[in-house]
Design brief:
The complex is a heterotrimer of chains A (639), B (581) and C (109). Chain A is mainly alpha-helical and 639 residues long. Chain A has helices at 18-36, 43-77, 79-88, 110-130, 139-158, 162-180, 187-218, 223-232, 242-258, 267-274, 277-284, 286-302, 318-338, 343-367, 371-403, 414-417, 419-433, 439-452, 461-491, 504-519, 524-539, 570-580, 592-595, and strands at 100-101, 106-107, 564-565, 604-605. Chain A contains 23 helices and four strands. In chain A, 64% of the residues are buried. Chain C has a single domain (7-103), classed as Helix Hairpins. The chains are: A mainly alpha (639), B mainly alpha (581), C mainly alpha (109). Chains in contact: A-B, A-C.
Chain lengths: 639, 581, 109
C-alpha cells in the first residue's frame, strides 16, 4: 500500500468538505446580511433575524454533514446497488475506504464525517443559545466567528498532516479569541479575550517550534509518513535524541494549552468566566473535541513509535509525561473547582479535571493493543462531556440573562420556579460526576476500563491502575462541587430577582443536552459502536487510494500526470545527513540536483515508488469493531 | 422471557409508578399517594408471588450456579449476536439474563435465591409501610413520591442484580433519591447530613468499583476456559471457589476493598459517623427505609460479594473484621446509652446490631474443634445464617422503632428522652406495640432479635472465645439501653403529655405487621425463614469454605452437613470437583 | 557552495530567538511587548522550518508539500494573529485605560 499521498488534486475532493464550505460561506452571508439589512432593525428583532438566518446555515451544514457521513457509508455498505448509480455520476470515488483528500492533507473518513456531524449539532445548540439574550451588538460578526471557528474545528479533526493541523488550529482559536471579547458591556470579556490570545499564541508558538524540530528529524509533515519513519528507527526511540525530546515536549505543551491540561491551564478559568456563556460553551466543547481528536491523531498515530520505546514508563517516551500530566490535571482541576463560587469558573476547573480523565484514555490509547477500542472510549467521553457541558453553560447563560450574574448561588430556588429544567440540570451535573446510569458514568467507565485493559505482563499496568484509582477518587471529589449546584437549585430559596421562564434557546439547549446524557446512558453501546467505528480509520495508516475491488479506471477521471520530482543521489543524501548531524559539510554544493534540473537529476514518478516503505506496523492495531457500521472500518491490510 | 418480566417488574413497577407520579398534576396529592402506595403494594404482592414460585418449583431452588449454566449466553453467529439458552422454555427458574453492553461483557443479569429473595421481601414490605407512613408529607409531594419510588426501584434492583456492573449501577442510583429525600424533607441540619451521607457512600462505592475492576482485569491466565473479563457474579463466584485463578494476595486486596465499601454502607465502626446524622435529619419514612433496607445492602454485599468473591482474603482478615464487628456492637451500644435524642439512640442501636452481621460473617471457624486439619464449617454456617437473620430481624425492628419514634415526634414535637415519659398511660396501644418491637430489638427470647444473636454469638464463641464473650456481654448493654429508654419514655407520669392521642388507624396498620413479624420470626424462625433461606446461605458458605485458595488439601473436605436442607446437587458437584482438582 | 552557513548556526540562532521570545512573554508587562515577543517566537520557528527544508533530506514519503509551505503559512497566520492581537490590546486599553497586563485583573481565583 503506498503511503505516498496522491500527487494531484482531484476536484471531487470538495465533496468531503461541503460542510466546511457551507459554514464558511454562510458566515459571510450572515455577516453581510447583518451589515446591509439588519442594522436598521431594533435590537431584539435584529438578533432574531440574524440568528434565524444563522440557524438556517446550521441546518444546511447539518444536511451537508449528514451527506458527507452517510453517502460513503451507504456506498460502501451496498456496493452493487450503489455502484451503478454512482458510477453514472462519476462518484465511484466514494467507494474508497477512508480516503485522504487534498493531496493527503485531510482525511475523508468516517471519523471526519462523524465529528463534522457532532460539531454541527453542537454549533446548532450554541448558536441557538446565543440568541437568548443581548450580550453584544455585533451579531453578524459574532455569528460569523462562531461559524468560522467551527470550520477550523472540522479541519482540525480532519487534518492528516501538520500544516493543515496548524492552520486549522489557528483558524479555530483566532476566531474564538475574538468571539470571547465580543461582550462589549463587560470588562471581563475583553480581559478574557486578551488572556486567551496571549496564552493561545504562546502555545501556538511552542507547538510550532516543536513541530519545526519534528520536521527537521523526519523531513515530512504527514502523520502517516512520520509514523512510518519513526517506527523504522527501531526501539531506541527518543534515547539520545534531544531534538526529538524537545519536539515531543513542545508539541505536548502546545496541545496542553488547547486542552487546558495542567500546567498549561491558567487561561481556561479566566476565559470561561470572561467569555459570553455561548462562547465559553464553544471553547469548552467544540475546541476541546477538535483539539483532542488532533491530539490523538498526532500522538497515537504520528508519534506512536515514541510512546514508550522499550516498554519502560520512565524511559524515553511520551507515555510517562502524559501519565504525569493526566494525574496532575485531574487532581488539580477538581481541587481548584472546590473553591469556586462562579458557575462558569467552576465549569472551567471541572473541564480541566475532565481533560485529565480523557488524558488517561489517551495514555491508554498509546499503550493499547486495540487502538480503535481505546480511542472509541475517548471519543465517546468527549461527545458525552460536550453535550453535558453545553447544557451547563446554557444554565449559565440563563442566569446571566435574568440575574446578570453567574454565580452558583444565583441558581437558588430554581427547582421551585422551573422544576423541569432544574431536573434537567440535575441530570447534567450527575452525568458530569459520573453517576450511573447516565452517559457520563459510562464514558468514565469505558475510558478507565480501556486504561486497565492492558495485555497481561504489560510493564505499564501498574501505572495505569494507579491513574485509574486516582481518577475514581477524583470523581468523588468532583461530587462536592457539582452537588453545590444541586444544593443551590433544590435546597435554597430564591434570592434576588426571579428567573424568568427560560425561553426556547436556553430551554432547548438544556433539554437536548439532557436527552443525550440520558439516552446514551443505558444505551451507551450504540454510541460506543459508532465511536469505535469512527476511531478505527483515525488511527489506521490509511491507504491513499484503496480500490474496493480490482483497480478500475475512473470514468471521467482527471488524468493524473506524473509530476517529475528531483531526488537526491545517494551520496548527496549521505552528505546532507552528516551535515545535519552537526559535521561540517564536505565541500560541494548542497543541492546541486535541485538547482539544475538538468540531466543529473532523476525524474521519477514519485507516488509509485517505495511501496514497501509503507508503515504497516499500525495495521494490526486496528482490528476494528466490526458490525455496527458495515465494513467501513476495514483496515487497508484487508482490502 | 417470563422470568425476565417477572423479576424485572420488581424494579420496573416503581419506575413506572414514578413516571405516573410525575405526570399527575401538582394539585392531586391524593392521587400521588395512592399511585405510590399502589406501586409499592404491587411490588409486595409480586415479591410474595415470587416467593411462592420459589418454594413451589424445585428448579428455582437449585443453586444460582446451576441455573446460571442453564441460562448461559450463547454467542450465535458473529460478534454481538447472542441468545440465551434456557433449557426448559418458559420455566420459572427465577433467573434471566441478556447482554447489555457487549463491548465489556456487561450483562443484564438478574435472579433470586433465598438470600436475596428474603431481602427483596423485606424491601417490598418496608417500602409499602414507609409509603403508608409518608401520608403526612405535604411539602412538595410530587418530588417526594417520585424519589421515594425511585429509591424503592434501585433497592430492589441492587438485590436482584447478578452482574457486578448492574449491581453497581443500582447501588449508585440509590444515592441520589436518598440524598434529596434527606436534604429536602429532613430536619434542621438536613443539608449537612445529606451531603455527609452522599460523600461517605460515594467514597465507599469507589472502593467497590475498584474491587470489581480488579476481578474483571486480573490476568490469572486461563483456568478451565475462564480468562477473566467477566462481571458475572455467579461465574466469578464459582471460579473463585473452584480454581486458583485469583491468588491469595489478590483476594486479600479485593476483600479489603469490598469490605471498606460495604462497611461504609452497613455502617460499621470507623465509617459509621454519617448514620446518626442521616437518621436524625431524615423524615420518619425515610429513616425506616434507611434503617430497614439501606443498611442491609451493606450486609448483603458482604454475604454476596465480599466473602464469596474473596474467601481467602476474608479468611486472612477474619480476626480483624470480627474485632471490628465486636467493637461496633459495644461502641454502638455504649454510645446509644449516652444519647438523649430518641432517634439518635435508635440510630446507634443500628450500628450495634449491624456489628452482629459483621461478626457473624467474620466468625470463620472453618475447622473442626476436635481435629484441626478437618474442615467443619457447621459453626460458620451458623454465623452466616445468623447474620442473614439479623438483617431481616433488624430490618423489621429498626423500621418499627424509627416509625414509633416518628409517631411520638409528630405528636410531642420533641425527641428528647428527658422530656418524654409516662406515655404508656396516655397511649396504651402505642406503648404495647413499642414494648414488643423494642424487646425484639433487645433480643428477648421468643422475639426475632434473639434468634439472630444466638446464632451469631454461637459462631463467635466457636471462633474466638474472647470475642464471643464480648459480643454476649454486649447483649447486656443492649438490654440496658433499651430498658432504660422504655423507662424514660413510657413509664412514670408526665402531665405535659396527657393530651396526646393514641395511634390512629393508619399508624396502627403500619405497626401491626411489624409487631406480628417480630413475634412470628421469634417463635417460628425455622419455618418462616431458615427453611428456605438456609439452603441458599449454606450454598454460599460451602462455596466460601471449599475455595481452593484456603489451602484445603484434597480429601479433607467433609461431607456436606446433614443439618439444614442438605446441600443441593450443585454444591455437591462443586465439592467433588474441588476434591479431584 | 562551500560558503554555506552550517545548519547548526541556524538552529542555534532559532533556539536563541525562541528563548528570547519566551522570556519576553514571561517577563514583559506591556501588552505590546508581549505581542512582539510572541512574534519573535513564531519567527524563530520559521527560521527552523526554512533551515530544515533547505538542509534536510527530501524523503519520498514526505508528500508533495514541503516544509517551506508551512513557513509561508506561518507567516500568514502570524500576520492574522498580530492583527487580532492589536485589536484585543486596543480593546483592553480602552476598557482598562492601561496597556500593562498586570492591570487586567477582573478575573482571578
Amino acid at each position: 500500500m503506498p503511503s505516498t499521498p496522491p500527487i494531484s488534486f482531484d476536484p471531487r475532493d470538495v465533496f468531503f468538505i461541503t460542510p466546511q464550505v457551507v459554514l464558511a460561506v454562510w458566515g459571510l452571508v450572515v455577516l453581510l446580511a447583518d451589515l446591509a439589512l439588519a442594522r436598521r432593525l431594533a435590537e431584539t428583532a435584529r438578533r432574531q433575524v440574524v440568528g434565524k438566518l444563522a440557524l438556517v446555515g446550521v441546518g444546511l451544514a447539518l444536511a451537508a454533514a449528514l451527506a458527507v457521513m452517510l453517502v460513503p457509508l451507504f456506498a460502501r455498505a451496498f456496493p452493487e446497488d450503489a455502484s451503478a448509480w454512482f458510477r453514472r455520476r462519476t462518484l465511484d470515488y466514494l467507494f474508497e475506504n477512508d480516503p485522504t483528500i487534498f493531496l493527503g492533507t485531510i482525511a475523508g473518513d468516517l471519523e471526519t464525517g462523524t465529528f463534522n456531524l457532532v460539531f454541527v449539532l453542537l454549533l446548532g445548540l450554541v448558536t441557538w443559545l446565543s440568541l437568548a439574550w443581548k450580550f453584544t451588538e455585533e451579531w453578524g460578526e459574532y455569528l460569523a466567528l462562531l461559524f468560522w471557528a467551527t470550520v477550523g474545528m472540522m479541519f482540525l479533526s480532519a487534518a492528516e498532516e501538520f500544516i493543515t493541523l496548524f492552520v486549522a488550529l489557528e483558524t479555530m482559536t483566532i476566531c474564538l479569541y475574538l468571539a470571547t471579547s465580543l461582550e462589549k458591556a463587560r470588562r471581563r470579556s475583553a480581559e478574557g479575550g486578551l488572556k486567551y490570545f496571549v496564552y493561545g499564541s504562546v502555545s501556538s508558538a511552542l507547538f510550532l517550534f516543536g513541530l519545526s524540530y519534528l520536521y527537521g528529524i523526519t523531513g515530512t509533515t504527514q502523520f502517516n509518513a512520520i509514523h512510518g519513519l519513526l517506527a523504522g528507527a527501531g526501539e531506541s526511540g527518543l534515547a539520545g535524541n534531544p531534538a526529538g525530546m524537545m519536539a515531543i515536549l513542545l508539541i505536548l505543551a502546545g496541545f496542553g494549552f488547547k486542552i487546558a491540561a495542567v500546567p498549561f491551564h491558567q487561561w481556561a478559568p479566566d476565559v470561561y468566566e470572561g467569555a459570553p456563556a455561548p462562547v465559553a460553551a464553544w471553547v469548552a466543547t467544540g475546541s476541546k473535541i477538535a483539539s483532542f481528536v488532533a491530539f490523538m491523531k498526532v500522538f497515537a498515530n504520528a508519534l506512536l513509535p515514541w510512546a514508550s520505546p522499550g516498554g519502560n514508563i520512565l524511559g524515553p517516551g511520551w507515555i510517562g509525561v502524559l501519565a504525569l500530566i493526566a494525574a496532575v490535571t485531574m487532581t488539580y482541576g477538581n481541587f481548584a473547582a472546590l473553591a469556586q463560587r462562579n458557575l462558569k469558573r467552576m465549569l472551567a476547573y471541572s473541564s480541566i479535571a475532565h481533560s485529565g480523565y480523557i488524558l488517561v484514555g489517551v495514555a491508554a490509547l498509546g499503550l493499547s493493543t486495540d487502538g480503535a477500542r481505546a480511542a472509541g472510549a475517548v471519543l465517546f467521553y468527549l461527545v458525552v462531556y460536550s453535550f453535558a457541558n453545553v447544557g451547563a453553560f446554557a444554565a449559565a447563560a440563563w442566569l446571566m440573562r435574568d440575574r446578570e450574574n453567574d454565580n452558583i448561588d444565583d441558581l437558588s430556588g430554581l427547582a421551585r420556579e422551573q422544576p423541569l429544567l432544574a431536573v434537567c440540570i440535575l441530570f447534567l451535573m450527575l452525568s458530569l460526576i459520573g453517576i450511573p446510569p447516565l452517559a457520563g458514568f459510562f464514558g468514565k467507565l469505558y475510558v478507565f476500563m480501556e486504561a486497565l485493559n492492558q495485555p497481561s505482563g504489560s510493564p505499564h499496568a501498574v501505572t495505569l491502575i494507579w491513574l485509574v484509582a486516582l481518577g475514581l477518587f477524583n470523581s468523588v471529589v468532583s461530587a462536592f462541587y457539582y452537588v453545590r449546584v444541586l444544593r443551590a437549585m433544590f435546597l435554597r430559596d430564591a434570592t434576588g430577582r426571579r428567573l424568568a421562564p427560560a425561553d426556547t434557546p436556553v430551554g432547548l439547549s438544556i433539554l437536548a443536552a439532557t436527552a443525550v446524557v440520558i439516552v446514551f446512558g443505558p444505551f451507551s453501546d450504540s454510541l460506543m459502536s459508532v465511536m469505535q467505528a469512527a476511531a478505527a480509520p483515525m488511527l489506521t495508516v490509511p491507504a491513499t487510494v484503496p480500490p474496493l475491488d480490482a483497480p478500475r479506471p475512473r470514468p471521467g477521471k482527471v488524468v493524473r500526470k506524473p509530476v517529475p520530482r528531483f531526488e537526491y543521489s545517494k551520496e548527496e543524501m549521505e552528505r546532507m545527513r552528516s551535515m545535519a548531524n552537526g559535521g561540517a559539510g564536505p565541500p560541494g554544493g548542497v543541492r546541486p540536483a535541485a538547482k539544475s534540473a538538468g540531466p543529473s537529476a532523476k525524474a521519477k514518478n514519485a507516488p509509485a515508488s517505495k511501496t514497501e516503505n509503507a508503515p504497516a506496523s499500525k495495521a494490526n492495531n486496528a482490528p476494528a469493531s466490526k458490525g455496527a457500521l458495515g465494513d467501513s472500518t476495514r483496515t487497508p491490510g484487508q482490502n | 422471557m417470563s422470568d425476565n418480566l417477572l423479576l424485572s417488574a420488581l424494579w420496573l413497577i416503581p419506575v413506572i409508578g414514578m413516571i405516573a407520579v410525575l405526570i399527575v398534576p401538582r394539585s392531586r396529592l391524593d392521587l400521588m399517594r395512592w399511585i405510590s402506595l399502589g406501586s409499592t403494594f404491587a411490588v409486595l404482592v409480586l415479591a410474595v408471588v415470587i416467593l411462592g414460585i420459589y418454594l413451589d418449583r424445585p428448579e428455582a431452588q437449585t443453586s444460582l450456579r446451576e441455573r446460571g449454566a442453564q441460562n448461559a449466553l450463547l454467542a450465535v453467529g458473529g460478534e454481538g449476536a447472542v441468545e440465551v439458552a434456557e433449557s426448559k422454555s418458559g420455566s420459572f427458574d427465577l433467573m434471566a439474563r441478556s447482554p447489555w453492553i457487549p463491548f465489556f461483557n456487561i450483562q443484564y443479569y438478574i435472579g433470586v435465591d433465598g438470600v436475596n429473595l428474603s431481602l427483596i421481601l423485606l424491601t417490598a414490605l418496608i417500602a409499602f409501610l414507609a409509603c403508608l407512613a409518608s401520608w403526612n408529607i405535604t411539602h412538595q409531594p410530587k418530588g417526594y413520591y417520585s424519589l421515594f419510588l425511585l429509591l424503592t426501584a434501585s433497592m430492589t434492583g441492587v438485590f436482584l442484580s447478578l452482574d457486578l456492573i448492574l449491581f453497581y449501577v443500582f447501588f449508585e442510583v440509590m444515592l441520589l433519591p436518598m440524598y434529596f429525600l434527606i436534604a429536602i424533607w429532613g430536619g434542621p441540619m438536613r443539608d449537612y447530613a445529606a451531603i455527609k451521607f452522599l460523600l461517605y457512600t460515594l467514597f465507599g462505592s469507589v472502593f467497590i468499583l475498584v474491587a470489581i475492576l480488579i476481578l474483571y482485569f486480573y490476568p490469572g491466565g486461563s483456568v478451565r476456559g475462564f480468562q477473566g473479563h467477566s462481571f458475572d457474579l455467579v461465574e466469578l463466584t464459582s471460579v473463585v471457589t473452584e480454581s486458583g485463578y485469583y491468588p491469595r494476595s489478590v483476594q486479600g486486596w479485593v476483600f479489603l476493598l469490598f469490605l471498606v465499601g460495604f462497611l461504609v454502607k452497613l455502617p460499621s465502626f470507623p465509617f459509621h459517623t454519617w448514620l446518626p446524622d442521616a437518621h436524625v435529619e431524615a423524615p420518619t419514612p425515610i429513616s425506616m427505609i434507611l434503617a430497614g433496607i439501606l443498611l442491609k445492602i451493606g450486609g448483603y454485599g458482604m454475604v454476596r460479594l465480599a466473602w464469596p468473591l474473596a474467601p481467602a482474603g476474608a479468611y486472612d482478615w477474619s480476626m480483624v473484621v470480627a474485632a471490628i464487628g465486636v467493637f461496633s456492637i459495644l461502641y454502638g451500644a455504649l454510645v446509644a446509652m449516652a444519647q438523649n435524642d430518641f432517634k439518635k439512640l435508635v440510630a446507634y442501636s443500628s450500628v450495634s446490631h449491624m456489628g452482629f452481621v459483621t461478626l457473624g460473617m467474620a466468625s470463620m471457624a472453618l475447622f473442626s474443634p476436635v481435629d484441626s486439619s478437618r474442615l467443619d464449617p457447621r459453626y460458620y454456617a451458623f454465623g452466616v445464617n445468623g447474620a442473614m437473620f439479623m438483617m431481616l430481624a433488624h430490618g423489621i425492628t429498626s423500621a418499627g422503632m424509627f416509625f414509633l419514634v416518628g409517631v411520638i415526634y409528630d405528636r410531642a414535637k420533641t425527641r428528647e428522652l428527658d422530656k418524654l415519659g409516662g406515655l404508656n398511660n396516655v397511649m396504651p396501644l402505642y406503648g404495647s406495640m413499642s414494648y414488643v418491637i423494642f424487646f425484639g430489638a433487645m433480643g428477648l427470647p421468643g422475639l426475632c432479635g434473639f434468634v439472630a444473636e444466638v446464632f451469631v454469638v454461637l459462631a463467635a464463641f466457636h471462633y474466638s472465645v474472647s470475642l464471643g464473650t464480648l459480643a454476649a456481654a454486649a447483649m447486656i448493654l443492649t438490654a440496658g439501653y433499651i430498658l432504660w429508654t422504655i423507662q424514660r419514655v413510657f413509664l412514670g407520669r408526665n402531665e405535659s403529655w396527657k393530651d396526646l392521642p393514641d395511634l390512629n388507624a393508619r399508624e396502627f396498620l403500619i405497626a401491626v405487621p411489624l409487631v406480628i413479624l417480630t413475634i412470628a420470626l421469634g417463635i417460628f424462625p425455622q419455618a418462616l425463614i431458615l427453611n428456605w433461606v438456609g439452603p441458599s446461605v449454606d450454598q454460599t458458605v460451602q462455596g466460601i469454605v471449599s475455595a481452593r485458595e484456603l489451602n484445603v488439601q484434597p480429601g479433607q473436605i467433609p461431607a456436606p452437613r446433614s443439618a439444614g436442607a442438605g446441600l443441593p446437587a450443585g454444591a455437591r458437584a462443586a465439592v467433588a470437583q474441588a476434591q479431584e482438582h | 557552495m562551500e560558503s554555506d552557513i552550517p545548519l547548526d548556526w541556524f538552529l542555534l540562532f532559532a533556539a536563541a530567538a525562541f528563548a528570547i521570545g519566551l522570556i519576553g512573554v514571561l517577563t514583559r508587562k506591556n501588552a505590546i511587548a508581549v505581542l512582539m515577543a510572541i512574534e519573535i517566537m513564531l519567527n524563530a520557528a520559521n527560521v527552523n522550518l526554512v533551515a530544515f527544508w533547505r538542509y534536510g533530506p527530501l524523503r519520498p514519503e514526505a508528500g508533495p508539500i514541503p516544509g517551506l509551505v508551512l513557513a509561508v503559512m506561518v507567516l500568514t497566520v502570524a500576520a492574522a494573529e498580530v492583527a487580532v492581537g492589536i485589536g484585543l490590546i486596543l480593546l483592553c486599553y480602552r476598557r482598562f485605560k492601561a496597556a500593562d497586563v498586570d492591570q487586567y485583573d477582573t478575573l482571578s481565583g
